Amino acid sequence: MSPRAGHAGHPPRTLAFVESPVQLLNVLEWAHLHGLCGAEPDALASVPAQIRRTVAGDPAPAGAELTVVVLSPTDPMTRGQLRRMADLARDEGYRVRWEEARGGPAAPFQTIGGLTGALRRADRIVMGDPFSRYVQLLLTITKARDLVVVDDGTATMEFVGQLARGERLVRWHRKGGRPGARDLLFAPVSSSARRRLTPSARRTVEVFSSMPVTETPQGVTVTANDFAWTRARFGPPRITKGADMVGTSLVETGVVDGDRYLEAVRNLAEAHGTTRYFAHRRESAEKLHRLAAETGLEIVRPDLPLELIARRGPIGRTILSFPSTVVHTLPLALAGTGVRVAVCDIDPSWLTETASPRAQGFLSGVTGTARDVHRLAAVGLPPRAPSRPGRVSPAGT
């Protein structure tokens, strides 16, 4: 944390922007590591929970240094997890400001207009997604001299690499395609954001990540996220004898073919005796119902990021995953519990015709750089076995 942030005698005014539950979790991890203060526990305990946990606009507790701004998406599952994470942030003593940032055509203008004053007063900006057009637009307003990027999953690896190479900021699964009309229209804002995210004599940049960073941009401070807050607040979990599987949104993002994915899940489940499938918040209901019907797996829709769900337990002794963020984060969150994380490679034949040319290499890199995981070869896809009915569970475990 930069010693110059803030004014003499006053704590730095830190404004964090998040659009997903994982981003908010990693803001809490960053604040915990850097010792940002919230309200005193005794003071919090005296405030009724129903007052502390209002959806928006609750006053900042005395001594709070951090304000978290939730730029709420429209997806119901993501919104539900964000509300739960917002409750945890308030319990830590931080102020949470909930913005219906996508609540209609006028919402972006209302959100940005309402945040302009806070952006100009902030000494430090923390963001979970530097690829977000919303965040990039907000960066053009702030005068903060300290910028922090916290993990938004595997995208953080791509962001750091692009910044180091001086490339335009493009999500990995879209790279290789031709820019659309909206991309061209937004290009000046994106270029401005990239310049602001480049360290200078006037501005510091920190990347707080549990992901492997192989290309460190000059002047950028990289701080390791070891999920100390998660391990201190939750668990240790009860470990079950079976195996659990973690879902992915690679089908929804157009990278992996849906039929191939279903076959791979079925084969993995049968080979490892898997009974539960923890769905990614972006997986479609249609796909999940098909998985339940054709694999017999119990589909669980978590109400919190998987790192917290696994840490609370119960959780299987083995966790199976495809290349994703959790192959890096779960070993850290579950350190010392004896749970094994195993990752299955994505076979090139599973990729869609429209997948980015970089998809296979990027996904292999996600797997190959993961620490403390067991690597599984891509499973074969034999003819379908008879299906057995499964069920979809509500949020939680």
Strand order of the largest sheet: 3-2-1-4-5-6-7
Q: Average pLDDT across residues?
A: 82
Tell me the number of helical segments per DSSP (H or I, 4 or more residues long): 14
Outline: globular
Instruction: Please state the structural category.
Output: alpha/beta
- Low-pLDDT regions: 39-63, 382-389
| End-to-end Cα distance | 37 Å
Largest sheet: 7 strands, parallel
The number of distinct β-strands equals 14
Radius of gyration: 21 Å
Order of helices and strands: EHHHEHEHEHEHHEEHEHEHEHEHEHEE
Beta-strand fraction estimate: 15-25%
Helical residue percent?
25-40%
Please describe what this structure looks like:
The longest helix is centred in the first third of the chain and has 16 residues, at 76-91. With 397 residues, this protein is an alpha/beta fold. Helix content is 37%, strand content 17%.
Concise synopsis of the structure shown:
The chain contains 14 helices and 14 strands. It is α/β, with parallel strands linked by helices.
List the keywords:
seven-stranded parallel beta sheet; 397 residues; globular; 14 strands; alpha/beta; 37% helix
Secondary-structure blueprint:
Elements: E1 14-18, H1 21-34, H2 41-45, H3 49-52, E2 66-71, H4 76-91, E3 95-99, H5 107-121, E4 124-127, H6 133-139, E5 146-150, H7 155-165, H8 181-196, E6 204-209, E7 221-224, H9 228-233, E8 239-246, H10 258-272, E9 274-278, H11 285-295, E10 298-300, H12 306-312, E11 315-321, H13 326-333, E12 340-344, H14 359-368, E13 374-376, E14 391-393
Parallel strand pairs: 1-2, 1-4, 2-3, 4-5, 5-6, 6-7, 8-9, 8-11, 9-10, 10-14, 11-12, 12-13
Helix pairs in contact: 1-4, 6-8, 10-11, 12-13
